[in-house]
Design goal:
Length: 158
Amino acid sequence: MELLQRRRLWPSRPELDELAESDAAEGRLVLSPGWFYGDIHVVELDGMMYVGRGVRPKGDEEGCRHTAIYVSNSLKTFADPTRLAILLWLAHQPASVTEIARHFKLSQPTVSAHVQLLREAGVLEEKSEGRSAKLSANEESLRRIFSGAQDKLLEHFA
């Protein structure tokens, strides 16, 4: 970690730190600098762990712009208060588009538009019930989106 100038390999994946330590102790860890990947790059291949550290300067404008685009695209689905309220409600109880529209006192086309964006972001699960479908929030997808955004942002502070 000292050579990589990091406290952790990947903040949201603590198991990688343990794996790197055991691989280093057994001589199966390869460290390498790299220009074409981000701050850190981890690959396990043929029983060896390859850990690369980005060598681009921290103030790299292109890297900052790429991070800004990635994070804003990842999180823009949650920027609308109505859409976020729908997602939070669906985290507690599955509902159809009609039930959502009734609960929030919105038109069905408005709710359908919000639901479509949540679907595209991958944070909704859909189960058929007769002629309609019940929607519910997918916690794992939500965690993956926020974790990815967090990891991308924290690369600039490591």
